UniProtKB/TrEMBL annotation:
Alphabetical list of NCBIfam families matching this protein: nicotinate (nicotinamide) nucleotide adenylyltransferase (TIGR00482)
Reactions the enzyme catalyzes: nicotinate beta-D-ribonucleotide + ATP + H(+) = deamido-NAD(+) + diphosphate
Protein name per UniProt: Probable nicotinate-nucleotide adenylyltransferase
UniProt keyword list: ATP-binding, NAD, Nucleotide-binding, Nucleotidyltransferase, Pyridine nucleotide biosynthesis, Transferase
Lineage: Bacteria, Pseudomonadati, Myxococcota, Myxococcia, Myxococcales
EC number: 2.7.7.18
Top enzyme class: transferase
Function, as annotated: Catalyzes the reversible adenylation of nicotinate mononucleotide (NaMN) to nicotinic acid adenine dinucleotide (NaAD).
Entry similarity comment: Belongs to the NadD family.
């Protein structure tokens, strides 16, 4: 019986268990939450927590975009991965960061990422989480029909974006845009972003923040 997680060199102790072909274990269930994560915030954490708590999944993987399909200008992939890792530290280990979009390359289309993951992990059943704000963009997504064949799509009710057939109650009214705006005004968005995520952003001077000076002895 091996263990598996979304990153080859995962340091977390709570990895997703993989069932061997001979065992009768049910398939491992993983929900994917793709996004810019520029930066990750408590809305992402609440969305992932809600799905983990109610939708019968073993793990949730944050999938930061490597190339954003609509060309959004973002902080570097490496720094967004570091911030996602810091968000994952808020959980017992069921939330993990996947760097799969770097591996897949191309235009960052979700259908391509999902096809890659389905082929790589035939023993995992995937769900795809999207917030209800995304519904208006779906006509511009590549092959959304094929996505629905490969994964159960969970549309969460993002506060401010009511839509039919969403799952669950309205989630937090918070966005990365709001966080970036607060940082630009010199405010501390400590109620919107976990402290560990803010620490990464400050130390790396992301979002126009001044890098803290190290005082010489
Ligand atoms: N507060 C929230 N409630 C529910 N879903 C959310 C929330 N914030 C983000 N999401 C969902 O998480 C995914 C990734 O979102 P993303 O990283 O683009 O964050 P964002 O806050 O929308 O960013 P930005 O303000 O930069 O557009 C999307 O499916 C989005 O709908
Ligand atoms: O597949 C597509 O065509 C597609 C088009 C736009 C966005 N997406 C994905 O949707 C997720 C959320 O995007 P965003 O812009 O809200 O950060 C992220 O994983 C994107 O890669 C996917």
């Amino acid at each position: 019986m091996g263990t598996w997680c979304c990153r080859r060199r995962c340091s977390r102790s709570t990895r997703v268990r993989r069932s061997s072909p001979s065992s009768k274990r049910p398939a491992v269930k993983v929900a994917l939450l793709g996004g810019s994560f520029n930066p990750p915030h408590v809305g992402h954490l609440m969305a992932a927590t809600y799905v983990h708590a109610t939708q019968g999944v073993d793990a949730v993987w944050l999938m930061p975009s490597f190339h954003h399909p609509f060309g959004k200008q973002l902080e570097s992939f490496e720094q967004r991965v570091r911030m996602c890792d810091a968000l994952c530290q808020e959980t017992s280990g069921w939330l993990q960061t996947s760097q799969v979009e770097r591996e897949v390359g191309g235009g960052g289309r979700t259908v391509d990422t999902l096809a890659f993951l389905v082929e790589r992990h035939p023993d995992i059943q995937f769900s795809l989480i999207i917030g209800s704000d995304i519904l208006r963009d779906l006509p511009h997504w590549k092959d959304f029909d094929r996505i629905q064949q490969m994964a159960r799509v969970l549309v969460l009710y993002r506060a401010g974006y009511p839509a039919p057939n969403t799952v669950g109650p309205p989630l937090a009214e918070v966005s990365s845009t709001q966080v970036r705006e607060q940082l630009a005004r010199g405010m501390e968005p400590s109620e919107l972003v976990p402290a560990g995520v803010l620490k990464v952003a400050r130390e790396a001077g992301l979002f126009g923040l001044a890098i803290p000076r190290v005082r010489a002895e």
